[in-house]
Amino acid sequence: MKMATAIWAVLADFFRCVATCLTPWRHSTDLRDERIQEVIRALEHDRVEDLRHRFLAPLRLLLPQSTLDRGWKIVYKTFGLLEHIGDPVISNGWWISSIKFPLRFQRANFGMLIQMTSGGSLVGLRFLPLHRLGFGEGWQPPAYVNRKIIESDITLGKGKFKLGGTLCLPPTQEQASKSPCIVFIAGSGPCDRHSTVEENQPFADLAWGLACRGIASIRFDKVTHTHPKQFRNQKNISLTDEYVEHVIDALSHAHRHPSILPDKVFLLGHSLGAVVAPKIAMLDSSVAGCILMAGPAEPIYRCLVRQLRYLESLDGPEAPYLGRQIAAAQAQAELADSDLLNSSTPAKKLPFGLGPSYWLDYRKFDPIGIASTLDKPIIVLQGGRDYQVTVKDDYQQWQAALEGKGNVQFRLYQRLNHLFIAGDGPSTPLEYMVPGNVDEEVIRDISTWVLQ
Questions:
Q1: Rounded CA separation 192/77 (Å)
Q2: Which of 150, 303, 418, 445 is close enough to 169 for a disulfide, judged by CB 3.0 to 4.6 Å?
Q3: Backbone angles phi, psi at 250, to 5 degrees
Q4: How far is the C-alpha of 206 from the C-alpha of 185, rounded, in Å?
């Protein structure tokens, strides 16, 4: 009986849509505008359940009310309550119109895109950054970058895996003397030279902010960004293959540059880059010290399991489906950690689909153990709102192992997330969809530490 009712509802909605398309366009436009105002009122009065009833019947059957409720709640958790809805901007189509709204929440401005039939039925609803909808701009240089920076392109690596990079120098007026330099090492995945994550570019913030304080830098696209297929198709790829050659080449480039102090070249590793940096500092005696930002104390596959559990706890729209992913990630992590891991272990059974050579090599990168043996200056920085690398699971392990060593300093920033951008409330992936900048206090602390 329920199935029959659903089928009739679908057919009835279909015939209504056909009838609407055959009515005069002015009538359809009036009806659509009325429906837009109803959507706005539903949002203003927090009646999310009203939105589901406005979807086209076939889509309504595929959209549980709980999914819509969870999606709206995760937006509220991230940005706070909705305070204002701007005027809609409408783009008409033959049957489907796109309507864009700027939304102002307590903690951020965001946008909504809805798609609606000429008969007033919803067929799509998405939250998007404002600039993607034509409202405002995306990432912008931070306010603390108030001087002209000198940048030039460089090439790192040899053979088929050459990469593009950027050398960033302090303003011209400070080039009478040579500058210290920092080589940036990005985190996991196909990171570009700016370490772009959605609407944010933390390495660009760092490079430009540090240049304004007299410190040069080199940042580069990872091999997984420039040559993703060719790199993955290689046999027996390793963590060393992913990072070491290009970081060593960047160090060499810095040492040869006439505007850089050759004995003041540092490594800055972020996330997985903070796992790699101590090993390279141990291998290369020319490295002056390490800046470790959001450094995992456990293997990144353990961090993944924690991240998935955290996302499940947020009770967002994907929460009911994360249980299977968590179980699979846990099983892969157990195998990667076990004595059973060997060169014949199938990649599909291991984290991120990477083969056994990657994880066997990863075991040689013991960041805390290696850092404890270094006599070079080290500074460890951590965001208090970071859910990817956390204070409890990671930063406190770094502190327990290294605190008391005269060459190690620590900085904890309570309001900062994994990208070292300030915010309030629980950190969620949605937060990265709002453009922001690395907090100026981080720039100040790094520059002070380097210049000392």
A1: 29
A2: 150
A3: -65, -40
A4: 12
Q: Is residue 145 part of a domain?
A: no
Residue 270: strand pairing partners? 293
Does the pTM surpass 0.70? The reply is yes
Report the distance separating Cα 443 and Cα 422, nearest Å: 13
Q: Find the mean pLDDT for residues 341-346.
A: 94
Whichever domain contains 361, its CATH number is 3.40.50.1820
**Residue 20 has what pLDDT?**
40
Q: Which two tokens stand for residue 77?
A: 């958790």
Note the pLDDT of residue 29. 66
Same domain (yes/no): 186, 280: yes
Q: How many domains does the chain have?
A: 2
Q: Which domain holds residue 270?
A: 150-451
CATH of the domain at 57: 3.10.450.590
Angle between helix 202-211 and 440-451 (nearest 10): 50
Cβ neighbours of residue 340 closer than 8 Å, sequence gap 6 or more: none
**In DSSP terms, which residues pair with 27 in a beta bridge?**
none
* Token digits of residue 112: 């909504």
213-217-218 Cα angle (round to 5):
165
Buried b (16+ CB within 10 A) or exposed e, 85-109: beebeeeeeeeebebbbbbbbebbb
Q: Is 54 in the same domain as 175?
A: no
End residue of a domain, out of 105, 133, 161: 133
How confident is the model over 11-63, as pLDDT tens digits? Answer: 344 434 433 443 343 445 666 778 888 888 888 787 888 888 888 888 888 88
Q: For residue 43, what are its two tokens? A: 């949002």
Residue with tokens 């933390």: 202
Say how far apart CA 104 and CA 81 lie, in whole Å: 9
Residue 48 domain flag: yes
Query: Angle 419-125-45 (CA atoms, 0-180°, nearest 5)?
Result: 95
- 381 and 334 in a common domain: yes
Q: Above 90 in pLDDT, residue 247? A: yes
Tokens linked to 199? 């609407």
Cross-strand partners of 70: none
The β-bridge partners of 152 are 167
**Domain ends where: 102, 133, 164?**
133
Lookup: tokens for 236 = 């027996």
Residue 62 has phi, psi (to 5 degrees) of -95, -5
d(CA 320, CA 66): 10
Q: Give the pLDDT band of residue 10 (cuts 50, 70, 90).
A: very low
Please report which confidence band the pLDDT of residue 176 belongs to, taking 50, 70 and 90 as the band edges. low
Measure CA 303 to chain center. 15
Beta bridge partners of 193: none
